């Protein structure tokens, strides 16, 4: 949209998320991926894999923000995506200070109650429960999709090893340490396989003469050369399996993660509404009740005029605060109603994700099936 290229560090994203949440606390602001791996938590992923996962998470974050109909028109996003200066964090904070939060700038903020349906609370509770169930279900689907993508990459490694055994073989009488072999067909962060070294061969590359006990009609010499040629097909199969893993990761897992980030941001919004605006409103009402009781006590038991006037002034201030809280509560519900509608608009994306999953499987099995079919006639020549 802006056709610009800017460099952003994680800390820049962090500040952008901070001011975005301050300005649009009543909207679905996506969460940030963690900056570091949690200490003391057992995990099988490497630091490079974690950094790649964080990069993908930041990409999903900015993608969701840029697609939001409210955020996309705001100065904060424009500043983050276009400012080329050295201190974008200060620029973002200054932009927020100039505008304040959405309640202060939205033209219908004080009339939000008029736009709310009568059963807004019931709708809110129902929608929250439905979206929670959808989120939990698709979270499990994402876990299964990740497992399938990992399995495809493991299959690629096994096929490559299988072909390597046909080509080089291995003398079981020799035991050498493992070595790393480049494998660019695999995932970018799994480019090296730990494979055995190349000891004296017993299959495809074995050039030793046959023992005298072997029949003069033995075809082992020709057979082992044929086995060597088959390794090419297994290398191709390995490449196809690796491509399948990447498709499953990019077309399925990543899209599921984007959808889940959106649903999680909605659940976070519901929690902010209940623990934020509603809680503050209740605290303000409680404080107001305490002041009213103090005022009643002052009228029964005469006190100094100055202290009574001071108490009256505090009550007026608290009444204004309560009125503002009530307006913010209605505006929060109004925004929540809009964000709920936005989430339901996005729900059909699930069919596109499932379609991408099916297409990736069809393409992967078709491509590998073609290689297997080409391999089958060559096996007939061995017997």
Automatic annotation (TrEMBL):
Its main location: membrane. GO terms for biological process: early endosome to Golgi transport; intracellular protein transport. InterPro entries: AH/BAR_dom_sf, PX_dom, PX_dom_sf, SNX8/Mvp1. It comes from the Eukaryota. It is a peripheral membrane protein. It is found in: Membrane. CDD domains: BAR_SNX8. Pfam families: PX. GO terms for cellular component: cytosol; early endosome membrane. GO terms for molecular function: phosphatidylinositol binding. Residues 1-87 form the PX domain. Keywords: Protein transport, Transport. Belongs to the sorting nexin family. PANTHER family: SORTING NEXIN-8 (PTHR46571:SF1). This is Chromosome undetermined SCAF11877, whole genome shotgun sequence.
